[in-house]
Amino acid sequence: MILSVESKRKLAEFLLRIKAIQLRPNEPFTWASGRKSPIYCDNRKTLSHPNVRTFIRQMCSEEVEGRFGKVDGIAGVATGGIALGALVAQELGLPFIYVRSNAKAHGMGNHIEGDLSSVSNVVVIEDLISTGQSSLKAVHALRNAGIEVKGLIAIFTYGFPDSEQAFEDADCAFSTLTDYPTMLDQAAQEGYITQEHRLALDEWSKDPVAWSKANSRS
Hints:
Rossmann fold; about 20% strand; alpha/beta; 8 helices; six-stranded mixed β-sheet; globular
């Protein structure tokens, strides 16, 4: 299934409107890595808006069936992909499991939570792709448990070349419901950013590390 331009732009508008995506080229955010960035994405906010939540659930469910076909279950990536994954599993009438960032240090020591007995293959649900490392860590955990990963779907991606290469190297197909270029086009059209801001955001996407260094404050 090829996601329509209209649905990708509509989702981008939703994310901007509810401030799940915020753009601040002149007052950069600091990511957990320490890098400066003109964008911050928190897709957990979508869960607080029923109309947005429903749109994403339906869009994601259609993508699961249209792109990956029949699957045994849905796997969410902790923590951002758990709620959406459960919603998609409910929509499709499938079992749901989720992958912890690390195996529990107590109890059963589970890395994957849920009943795996009827799940031999899954589509993985994630909220955001940045470098792709946390997503692929979950993919590897599932594969190590003997579960086939048909692919991964995320709400949004920054589209970094290294993340795309990482998925290719891992032989993991992935799809995103919307993306950075689509979001920028929508942000410019709706007046969320000026032309000057657009240029800065374009520069960041070309080389985030260099942009961060140039915009770091002593």
